[in-house]
Amino acid sequence: MVLGFTTEELEKYGGTDEKVKRLKKWLPEEKLPPLTSEQILLFLIKEEEDVERAKAAIKISYHCKRSLPKVFNKRKLDQSFYDVFQVCCMPEKTEDGCVIIYVSLIDGDYRKFNLDEFFKGLFMVFEAEVYHQPINGIKLIVNMENGGMWHFAKLKFFTLKTSVEYFQSGTPVAIKEIHCLNTNFFFEKILVLVRPFADKVFLSKVSQTWDELG
């Protein structure tokens, strides 16, 4: 994927030139698909210019994308996504240079809920936010007001597991915080599923506001 910036334009990351070259040489050795210098730079910035951590993130990113073609291969959203979900990016960054993304389930009809489409749309938004230039991270706000037990019944375990793995390690931008609003038993059930394969660092980023009326 060609991004909307070049490494030459980012003078403040000039010290990463040699690391980008090392990672480009490393990719074919690991039989991984080629990445542009800009894509590699995103992983380096996310991992604070630690080459070994960047390697691990790239491997996980490739593994997740290969494992979930319905989420990562078809880069066009079905109309059902726009009917059921709302995703908004705040126009101003936070003081620490992060982008705030607000996600909401606007149609509570569980029959329209599609987990693959949800993650596809969300990850496309992540990529759009780093298209023109790197950012310090993403802070996610998820409104779960219209979620319920029937939505939980439609969750696909493999999609959820692989997407959480991508969330915590494989994205080209750091996920700094995840704030879940209007949570209820639906959220608690999701946590039960996620905890066995989510690491402590990822879980520490998740906070919730309980809906006492839910």
What does this structure look like?
The protein has 214 residues and is an alpha/beta fold. It has 10 helices and 5 strands, in the order αααααββαβααβααβ. It has helices at residues 17-29, 37-46, 51-67, 69-72, 79-84, 115-129, 149-153, 157-170, 185-194, 200-204, and strands at 85-89, 98-105, 137-143, 175-183, 206-210. Strands 1-2-3-4-5 form a 5-stranded mixed beta sheet. Strand 2, helix 6 (115-129) and strand 3 (137-143) form a beta-alpha-beta unit. Helix 2 (37-46) packs across helix 3. The longest helix has 17 residues, at 51-67. The radius of gyration is 18 Å and the shape is globular. The model has no long low-confidence stretch (mean pLDDT 88).
Give me some keywords for this one:
214 residues; 10 helices; five-stranded mixed β-sheet; alpha/beta; single chain
